[in-house]
Amino acid sequence: MSELDSKVLKGDIRAIARMITLIENNDSVAIDAMKNIHKKSGKAHVIGITGVMGSGKSSLIFELAYQYRKRGKKVGIIAVDPTSPFSGGAILGDRVRMMELATDDNVFIRSMGTQGMLGGLASSVFDVVEIFDASGMDIILIETVGVGQAEVDIVKIADTTIVVLVPGLGDSIQTIKAGLMEIADIFVVNKSDKSGVEQVVVEIESMLEISSKSDRKIPIILTSTKKNQGILELLNEIENHRIYLKKGKKLEEKRKKRYETELTEIIRKRLMSLIFDESKFKDKVDRLIDQISKKELDPYSAADEILGKILK
Amino acid sequence: MDRKIRVLVAKPGLDGHDRGAKIVARALRDAGMEVIYSGLHQTAEQIVKTAIQEDVEVIGLSLLSGAHMTLFVDVANMLKEKHIDDVLIVGGGIIPEEDVPRLKKAGIAGVFGPGTPVEEIVDFIKMNVKR
Predict the structure, then answer these.
(1) Residues of chain A contacting B, Cβ within 8 Å
(2) Does the ipTM surpass 0.90?
């Protein structure tokens, strides 16, 4: 065992922080350290929180983390914000609402960019979950922001997925319904001190009636972080869902799905860098692209040629 | 893959003006960096702990209230106490010329006053990151 993974497994904060940076940069020492970390992970409950922009996800996560801390749980928080596809940079601002937790040694908050994956979650989120888990954190909260693939992808990592809506979205619920509405294990209507709560609840209920095929009734919780309402109820429902998963083989199935997605992601990443970054193939690829644009070759035949070379 | 420079932009103390900090944050993002923005009213302890968890290579402090001699230096000292020597600290805001040498001596490697072109800050960070 290297020094890095043994420190991570002991919960050393600086080692955890450095480990995450290294794995985000595909460092070979970190990749090696993941062998042990993977073995020691699997105990934490992973909660994904997603929803429309401005729905108060960060504040909700702050409240949940605060409650878990009161119960003696160690909490890891992963806040994902979009990386600019143009500059590759990102502004990660979710900590702003969580800074009160910054001095608690049993809360670890890490901000991540989506890193230019086609709108999806950064593949290193999988690694960070395992690193947090193996280092002894009991609860891992993942926040994804905005609209797009990242929100739907979270279901592949989280054990429990919470979708946060707010009153006053009106008909826009119809437009976000696709994808986002199907992944919820729990619905939260946040900012429930505002008017229009009932309408949102009715819309969610009628949508659930049409699409529900589960043996489990999906709860809808009204919360107001401003008035500190509904948080305990939400905590309760998360626990209920955890118990529900543990019964039967549901958790096992979920975890298998998670690893399947992660494996696919690693292979995709490696293949892509093999084809497009490594000099051995780069010239060949450039030549093929040239031929395609000159109409001497079609893209499918070019792909056959490249894959044939790799898989020979 | 290019390694991204991670920067914590933080507002220590009681000053509530973060326009400058946000403009700098955007410029750094546009230069391809990952910027973690802390929000207002941070203590030195919060800033240092955040810097550790986020494993940033740069801390950018912004202050317009005049308390930089205390608050900037607090952050630098706390990093030293924790034996963290691979984080670059830069500061900006309304900072009198005569304070700059003492800030630099305390470990604030770059000090940028009003009107500094953002490109200058970007270049300084790129040239001086320690990892």
Answers:
(1) 13-14, 17-18, 20-21, 25-26, 83-84, 87-93, 95-97, 99, 102-103, 108-111, 113, 273, 277
(2) no
